[in-house]
Amino acid sequence: MHLYIHIPFCRRRCTYCGFCSSAGLEHRLDAYVRAVCAELAALREDVRIQTGRLSSSLDLRPTIFLGGGTPSLLSPAQVGAILQAASALVPLEQAEITLEANPGTLMGPVGRSPCATSLAYFRSLRTLGVNRLSLGVQSLHDPTLRILGRLHTAAEARQCVDDASRAGFQAINLDFIFGLPGQTCADWATTLDTVAAWDINHLSLYSLILEEHTALFAQVMRGEVDLPDHDTTAAMYELAMERLAGAGFVHYELSNWARASRGYLSPRWPSGEIEVPLPVCHHNVAYWLNVDYLGVGAGGHGHIYPERYANLTDLDAYLAAVQQGRRPVEVVTPLSPSDLAAETMFMGLRLVEGVRFAHFRCRCGVEMEAVYGEVLRELEGLGLLERTTDAVRLTNRGRMLGNQVFASFL
Amino acid sequence: MHEQDQNRIRNFSIIAHIDHGKTTLSDRLLELTDTISERERREQLLDAMDLEREKGITIKAKAVRMNYTAQDGTPCILNLIDCPGHVDFTYEVSRALAACEGALLVVDAAQGIEAQTLANVYMAMEHDLTIIPVVNKIDLPGAHPEQVAQEIEDIIGIEREHIILASAKEGTGVPAILEAIVRLIPPPRGQVHQPARALIFDSHYDAYRGVIAYVRVVDGLFPSGSRVRMMGTGVEVETLDLGVFRPAMMPLNQLATGEVGYIATGLKSVDECQVGDTVTLAAQPASSPLPGYRPAKPMVFAGLYPIDSNAYGELREALDRLKLNDAALSYQAESSSALGFGFRCGFLGLLHMEIVRERLEREYGLDLLITAPSVEYQVLRTDGEIVTVDNPADMPDPGVIASIEEPVMQISIIVPSRYIGQIMDLVTGKRGAFETMEYLDPQRVLLKYKIPLAEMVIDFYDQLKSRTQGYASLDYALTGTQESDLVKLDILVAGQPVDALSLIVHRQSAYAQGRELVEKLRKLIPRQMFEVPLQAAVGSKIIARETIRAMRKDVLSKCYGGDVTRKRKLLEKQREGKKRMKMVGNVEIPQEAFMAILSLGEAKEKEKK
């Protein structure tokens, strides 16, 4: 069972973010948390979910992921209330429970919570059962952080990482963006080397995507901000693969790296290919394996084959729907068997180990070869895909050109 | 009808530059004569096609009959014949003017006279039309009506007292215009008792009644239900119906001498009933047609290919349908080794080409690729044979060419005198030869040049506009052909010549154009998954080379909270983008690449600035 809970509140919008969140509405957090709890309670009553269709055949832990927005705006009491409500759907003691945190919200007195410092806040989270932290660091260069509209400095982010570690978190992820305004390969190498020396065991590195209707997009269009070109960001990606491998990180998904660390205890990585317990993000792995999951909260997305759904993004509309006892769903996208097959491929190929034939058969009820034999051969011919005994995966070149591969399955 | 009746008819047209207010004035005339009520009036009534409204131009001429009682109490029939304002449609303009005895010359009070307007005025004068000048938009803040009136007096020689100041938008001066039409424009003077002759000045295709010919009866009378003959094409047909436009078609028992109306022919194609042809009665045919008939002749040629090669049949059908309404459009099947099956199409000019392409895409839902426009060359082979080449790919091997003739235009440019240097620079760079220069007033000059048509179809107009901040206006006419030292420039993509990218250029500029073109293509063709060399060649000699480097990275970003639908949409968008490109060998080439030649010189221009 995998559960995503969206917290669409931010103290301030980042200039590059095109996602569902609003700034300056923190006074409504309480009402929102109550609504999320009500939505969770209602889901428990849902027949389809009770029948256990959500359990996957894979050796994945159950997961809860508090994403945003900025979940670290929640007080420990609010996190506790949500987890309490979620416990009816997900067994908390076995689950990977991740909370996304913005270091900018953890400096000084934390939000409206009684925690005076980030250390106290993280300790409270640990007590509540949160066992994985994902910190949005994005850059170690203060002027760049300001361009991005982030609330924190690099030093404050560092402080946060230390506090998380001291609070006892053994699974810590940092989010970074590359291809940032003014960034050079040398800057990026320094960032990678610096971060690799920190006490963390997971990194998510994303190439900046300029989203329309964002402040950064407008700045770039006006020529106020220069972004590195295509070749430079390609080189940055290659640099990350090289430097992180040297620092003991395993590249397990196109944008994600994990390294074994002391004290991290987890079931084996599902494929069994990797010898040590690797602190991968089980929640995200569930997405990539294209299994079913629930999405809760305004703008949350869920996948219960044969459909995907998206919750209402408008806060008022969401609150009203929950209050009136309706499911707060805005869009339901029905999925055909061929949609399921395509999504299983283009999501699954993001995993470095690829899509296992057995997994495809189990998920889609048909052999991969029967559906995609021709496409696979074409992509193999182009040197973008390769077959192992039990899976098909991207080649090194294919990793760089993922979209070209993914689009072939649509 | 008796001769006396002709005296009550006034046939007139409106000559105006784009945006000088022709449509607004037409609407006012229709309202003031109660031809349409305010309530019925749609914005821009006469321009029915979407495309016309968008481009602000009149493509198809129309004719409307208005009843007007003059101030002295005489009841009159006023026929307004609308005519196109763009130089691509010069022949249509000339036929519309030939159907009239007078014309309103509408000039914007802020802009003054433009070259095309002047060309049309001269054409009207050749047809002995009475010109009534109207200085329009006098309500605008930037208007200087007296100065414009003075300009009209100086250039056209019409005295100030005959020039009407008006604001069609506000209705000022419009009653005076109606009176002037009755007072100044002479009535038709046709031979009532001679065999019937009518001039076709426009036509359109109606799915139920076939081709509807728009006619001006010059001599005699056409009774309803008679059998008629098109004297130019020799086609004979039973008329289904005839009448006048009010502005909807209103059937009558007859069309008499001097009248303007329509004849529904039932013909299946406008080809059989061409603009400029003469209609006569089959039973008592006239001995000779009216002068000036000229079958529509395309000047600019380009290949049209469906992006999806399976849509070839649909494209053929769409062209067949368009042709019903457009006698000037010509097409024949051709095949390109790079693009597959398509059509070589002939157009009156670039605007006509653009209109046809847009209509095919919009009305028929086709995704089209259009190759760079070319002109028609006469190639004298060493064996004495002369071949006509309108597709660079068909140019014979240089070894068997004795000489090549290309079409030449005479162009007239009216421009503020401070831009003379810019114009000289542009025209000489395009192999133009200076002819005359004439000051219209102390600030404005009329420049005349001869220039190869091939140079004009390649971004001449845009350059003219940009180098003169939009002040220059242009008119042109074909004058003949000239022998030139021309060569075929080939473009090789990944080592393979792409016939659809070939060009005919002057030998002296081949090197520079080749270099610029591959440089441009390098920017237009997206990176592929492998390196793609681009070369320009004349014969077997490579004169320029560029390389499109292989795509290095193309990976999706973060998956926001399990929103796979969004990811999928992004991938689908990427895939759609691919579909709009043409696969040539294993290289995906976007549509713009085939038109790259049109924007050559832009880069240079920017550098200069």
Could you walk me through the main structural features you see in this protein, from its secondary elements to its overall organization?
The complex is a heterodimer of chains A (410) and B (609). Helices cover 39% and strands 19% of the residues of chain A. By secondary structure, chain A is α/β, with parallel strands linked by helices. Chain A folds into two domains: 2-288, pyruvate-formate lyase- activating enzyme (Alpha-Beta Horseshoe), CATH 3.80.30.20; 337-407, Arc Repressor Mutant, subunit A. In chain A, α3 packs parallel to α4 and α7 runs parallel beside α9. By secondary structure, chain B is of the alpha+beta class. In chain B, 26% of the residues lie in helices and 33% in strands. Chain B is built from 16 helices and 33 strands. In chain B, the strands form seven sheets. Chain B has an eight-stranded antiparallel beta sheet with strand order 11-10-16-7-8-15-12-13. A six-stranded mixed beta sheet of chain B has the order 2-3-1-4-5-6, sandwiched between helices. In chain B, strands 21, 22, 23, 24, 25 and 26 form a six-stranded antiparallel beta sheet that branches. In chain B, α8 (312-325) packs across α9 (350-364). The longest helix of chain B has 16 residues, at 564-579. Classes of the chains: A alpha/beta (410), B alpha+beta (609).
